[in-house]
Amino acid sequence: MTLTLALQLLVNGLAVGGLLGLVALGLALIFGVMRVVNFAHGEFVTLGAYITWLIAGSLGLSPMIGIPAAFVAGAALGWVVQALVISRVAARPPLDMLMVTYALSALGLGLFSIGFGGDFRSYSSGPNGELWLGGVSIGLRSLTVLCVCVFLAGAVILLLRSARTGLALRALAQNRDSAASCGIDTRSTERFAFSLAVGLAAVAGSLVSLIGTTTPTVGHDWMLEGFVVVVVGGLGSIQGALVMAFMIGLLQSVCGFLLDDSWAKIIIYALLYAALLLRPQGLFGQRMEA
Description:
The chain is an all-alpha fold. Helices cover 74% and strands 3% of the residues.
């Protein structure tokens, strides 16, 4: 493998890793704050993809408008879903919550299938062309995806570390009862966390539509790999989710070139199996005491 080829695979892997990181960031945020495994996360990714496709493909506007539009729509929907559905089953056994989010996923998939059919949808507007650096081709669309993902991940990290809301999120993630005793409004904080996570998922879908095609199941595929990232990185660990996202993105790029995409997915899920056997809490997670 030449140096130029290695750099090309690195560039390709970073773009995929950025998208995986954005999807996994939402999953990790929801689990870390609410202890909820959200099976409907993929449908929120699909929502962002279709919003951007409608803006760019039907209205003829720039898909860059679809990025903030997807975030606003996703965050608003997340707020409503958390208030009307998730909060009502929060006190029930974990299996009930799993079934509720799975039902939301099935409902979303059905609505997307009815509304848009199973056709592959794409658009040509937006950043086009490529940059050449030392023989390495960097597509402007992939570069846009990476820049947006890095910006949003950095913004979320700053929010969690500095802002008052971020401190409330961290306190709630550590101990709900202690956070409530300190005067933190746990209901509003959980609602904000879910809304932010869904907004991030919708942006991820918007970026997916920029570099690929949109179908009713596009978010489901990214969600599955996002779960691998979150589990291997450590459930609830933002740092672990981001690090593993880029590592798996690079792994996909290299394995997809040397073998094929099917083998790349097999290796990724084998990594999940090994992580569950050897380090169930993940690379950056903390062991849960019985």
